[in-house]
Amino acid sequence: MELVNWSKTVPIKSLDYPEAYCIAVARDNNYIVLTENGGAYFSQRYLNNVKIWRAFEVLLELYKRGLINITEFETYQRETLHIFPKRDIEKLYNKGK
After folding, report:
1. What is the pLDDT of residues 15-25, one digit of tens each?
2. Domain of life here (predicted)?
3. Which of 22, 33, 40, 73 has a C-alpha 20 to 30 A away from that of 49?
């Protein structure tokens, strides 16, 4: 409840209860939260000791470890109909150059 109330005081989309609970558990146990919720994702800018990833960051980590190739980002978007933000894709391809 504390995180939900806090999220209403900062310039981000307010957190829903499930995301707030997940973030609290992750923070206390050094876990990574996986969500596509914008409020939850951007809350990590204001919170300490919590990592919040979207599918993009999961794929990026797999790519960095050499477990997938760069085309998997496009495959994921095509198969899930979930389009990554253009700025993320641009960063991905610019780092490879």
Report:
1. 888 888 899 99
2. Archaea
3. 73
